[in-house]
Design brief:
seven-stranded parallel β-sheet, Rossmann fold, elongated
Length: about 375
């Protein structure tokens, strides 16, 4: 992507180093670049893994650590202070017209620095529960944009709270509303299973056993595509081989959007990006919210699809092979209902969330 002119206004984007935070920030960056802005990205070493695709003109790698993780809270505090100092220097150097925080602990130093330097800023929350970093900086924000219709744990705000939807990366947006052809007769049924680093292990244990328990007429037609950890790959392959089920296993799929498009059913966690991408493409799903997720935000995310009739929800304590076999078998046995679930998923996909967020950013910047 071409560099914007040197005199173009700068937007600062702060995002934690996971796809859930980085993908919507990337989508906004692409849109702002197209509108002639320069992009300053604040993130951590994990976020730098997304650097090759992130259209930033400048990148500031910050120190930050979660005080809730193992280790010293004093060390986390010192890391935060160091990150704030670096962010303040970057803000002084580049003079962004506005900042937008997407959450995650690595975004904290930049957003605190923006508040200290009196830079106007907004917050975008991807989940149905306002995350801790976003919650801390939200009171001083010019706006709090959110991805889902419900947003809990919201403090008293100075600015507006606006439902916009979650921006999605171009690779997903190009498949928005992809047609869904339900499996009919004796045709193959594609089952796509993914759960990230905190979901793959559980799914590696439960899903093969559940698929093996399905009636033979269903099991013989299933093609499983599943994310598994490398150290578990051989064992999972053996389970599917013993069940006579065709499968493709990998620790990571670089063509996730295409895998979603080709799936007849999806099994996954309920992170904001997962739920949004399933809705954008429009696929029936079985969602298993991460049990240790902070504030149980994944259950809130999943409810968007569940309440629309587009997904089944299985709480992690109830996620057994027997329960999954029951839910999965019932869904795959009714292809017409699968098509209806796909349509209902598409019905809750937000309209132009990236454009609307960019409009809000420009409106806010123009008022200051």
């Amino acid at each position: 992507m071409n560099q914007s002119p040197e005199n173009a206004p700068i937007i600062g984007l702060a995002a934690g180093g996971t796809g859930g935070h980085m993908f919507p920030a990337e989508a906004l960056a692409v849109e702002m670049k197209a509108r002639g802005w320069r992009v300053l990205l604040f993130t951590d070493d994990r976020g730098m893994r997304f650097g090759k695709d992130f259209p930033a003109d400048m990148i500031e790698q910050l120190n930050a650590a979660s005080p809730s993780r193992k280790g010293s809270k004093i060390a986390a505090g010192m890391s935060l202070l160091k990150g704030i100092s670096s962010a303040r220097k970057a803000i002084k150097k580049y003079k962004p017209a506005i900042m937008v925080g997407f959450g995650g602990y690595p975004s904290a130093p930049a957003m605190v620095a923006a508040r200290m330097k009196k830079i106007p800023y907004g917050v975008h929350e991807q989940n149905a529960v306002l995350g801790r970093v976003n919650r801390a900086v939200a009171p001083g924000a010019s706006f709090v944009a959110h991805g889902f219709s419900q947003l809990s744990r919201v403090p008293t705000l100075k600015g507006a709270k606006v439902e916009l939807g979650n921006p999605v990366r171009k690779a997903i947006a190009t498949h928005k509303g992809a047609s869904y052809v339900p499996p009919a007769g004796f045709s193959e049924m594609g089952l796509f299973v993914f759960g990230g680093s905190q979901g793959a292990s559980l799914f590696s244990k439960i899903v093969p056993e559940a698929v093996a328990a399905l009636p033979d007429d269903l099991k013989s037609r299933i093609k499983v595509t599943q994310q598994v950890r490398e150290e578990e790959r051989e064992d999972v392959q053996a389970l599917y081989d013993n069940a006579g089920v065709d499968c493709e296993l990998a620790p990571f799929f670089t063509d996730m959007p295409e895998r979603l498009v080709s799936a007849h059913m999806v099994i996954g966690r309920a992170g904001a990006s997962t739920v949004t991408e399933i809705a954008t493409i429009g696929r029936p799903s079985i969602l298993v919210p991460l049990g240790i997720a902070m504030d149980d935000h994944q259950t809130g995310n999943a409810q968007v699809l569940v309440e629309a009739g587009a997904a089944a929800l299985i709480p992690e304590p109830d996620f057994t092979a027997a329960k999954l076999a029951e839910v999965l078998g019932n869904a795959l046995a009714h292809p017409t209902e699968l098509a209806e679930m796909a349509a209902k998923a598409r019905s809750v996909a937000p309209e132009s969330p990236t454009k609307r967020l960019a409009d809000l950013v420009e409106q806010t910047a123009a008022l200051t």
